[in-house]
Amino acid sequence: MAELAFIDKVAERTGVPEDTARLLTEGTLLTLAARISGGEGMDLAEHVPDELRPYLIKPTEPAEAFSYDEFMRRVAERAGVDRPTAERGVAAVLSALHETVGHQEFTDAIAQLPREFGQLVAAPARR
């Protein structure tokens, strides 16, 4: 899946313009990379479009521990959107990521996140 197709999926699932979907995608992947181990980020990066890889790669291995609320706050701030839009965006990005990287890689990464993410990724992104 090319970067544009990934962004288009996020835009469609979130109900936002393409430029906002791009910011949500970048913000979600950067925040995800901070929250999971460097090795897991590298594993995910191997499966995403080339243009999105830098957002998942970080120079350190340890995961930064922060809550679901802090994750959403960071994404909202990075994308310049409100909390509900950030939440829909994160759900859409994670859904597109799941389709792109495959179930096992996705499950390994999500296992490192707070339990609230299980409910977020189980529910389809809604407008």
Could you walk me through the main structural features you see in this protein, from its secondary elements to its overall organization?
With 127 residues, this protein is mainly alpha-helical. The chain has one domain: Orthogonal Bundle (Globin-like), CATH 1.10.490.110. Helix content is 69%, strand content 0%. It contains 8 helices and no strands. It has helices spanning 3-14, 18-35, 38-45, 53-56, 68-79, 83-101, 103-110, 116-122. It is globular and about 35 Å long. The two termini are 23 Å apart.
Please give a quick description of this structure:
By secondary structure, the chain is an all-alpha fold. The chain is 69% helix and 0% strand.
- Main sheet summary: none
CATH architecture: Orthogonal Bundle
Distance between the termini: 23 Å
Domain unit count: 1
Low-confidence stretches: none
Portion in helices: 55-70%
Count of strand segments:
0
H and E order: HHHHHHHH
Number of helices: 8
Spell out the CATH superfamily.
Uncharacterized conserved protein DUF2267
Task: Indicate the mean pLDDT.
Answer: 92
CATH class: Mainly Alpha
What general outline do the C-alpha atoms trace?
globular
Alpha-beta classification: mainly alpha
CATH topology: Globin-like
Oligomer: single chain
Query: Radius of gyration, rounded?
Result: 13 Å
Pfam families: DUF2267
